[in-house]
Amino acid sequence: MTTSNRVLDLFGIELPIIQAPMAGATSPDMVIAASEAGGLGSLPSALYSEEQLRAALDAVRAGTKKPINVNFFSHQTPEDEPARQSAWRERLRPYYIEEGLDPDQPIPAAGRAPFNDTFAKVVEDYRPEVVSFHFGLPSPELVERVKRTGAKVISSATTVVEARWLEARGVDAVIAMGFDAGGHRGNFLTDDMSQQVGTFSLVPRIVDAVSVPVIAAGGIADRRGVLAAFALGAEAAQVGTAYLFTPEAAISEVYRQALASAEEATAVTNLFTGRPARGIVNRLMAEVGPLSEIAPPFPTAGAAVLPLRKAAEAGGRGDFSSLWAGQAFRASRPMGAGALTRMLAGF
Fold this sequence. Notes:
Elements: H1 6-11, E1 17-19, H2 28-36, E2 41-44, H3 50-63, E3 68-73, H4 82-98, H5 117-126, E4 130-134, H6 140-148, E5 152-157, H7 160-168, E6 173-177, E7 183-184, H8 199-209, E8 214-217, H9 223-231, E9 236-239, H10 253-261, E10 266-269, E11 277-280, H11 283-288, H12 301-314, H13 337-344
Parallel strand pairs: 1-9, 2-3, 3-4, 4-5, 5-6, 6-8, 8-9
Antiparallel strand pairs: 7-11, 10-11
């Protein structure tokens, strides 16, 4: 697949396939299966408390002794913006009434903590072989703590400028995340979605711009996508959406039905969390957005949408659910996470 095996040596894995960390969808069983198959299983922390992350890591370490990746967000916690939050609640008011909910009910704070001292202690205790970050990197002091554990550090770049920024700050590899990728965009130096490019335009540009290995992510759902990524200079492929079709995916029945029956329509939206993320177009995206200046900053937008999502999903509808999926999701096929990892690698 590639004349270089720098990623294999770097991470201590057998196959240059990384199962993408997908908060809310990746289970410990998925991580175990991907790593046991020879790839790199990735555990997301974005929706975990410290206790939940430790429990998940206990489960993963009990299931595999092979290398794993633990993923963290490194966003900045936003300041309070009461006026913007109020405007967002007002925009959602008709949907609350329609669903039989009190539009003025108190809502809990959104729970996505960035990488901090608490999470650094978890890394120091469990010593995963790889630690990945989304939305740039945390402070140099925190990155250094991670590196002292022996973990390799990687992060996502959506532009050449971001890739160079990451290399200058000592990452061991760069994930080139194309605009076709599902879930949250990894952008951190720009908020301009109009200039984001697809994976197969981005990968060779980043390969030419940095000296560290490049991992392709976005629009890769089968063996053909992996081969295309390697032809452009990537040394590994990170695949997310295809793993949603595995029995190890911890997703709702509504989500599974959307993946199985939706037309080829995805869009980048900020309605569900406040940051751009690609998902299957549903009612909220079609009627409000998909990108709206009213939506408050990440991660606070999601708190007001959550009651709507729960009410709709109870009725078997995904009208207000974040149905993250990449543009190539229709090329995915149901199979176990281990079999998928091997198939992507050509076995």
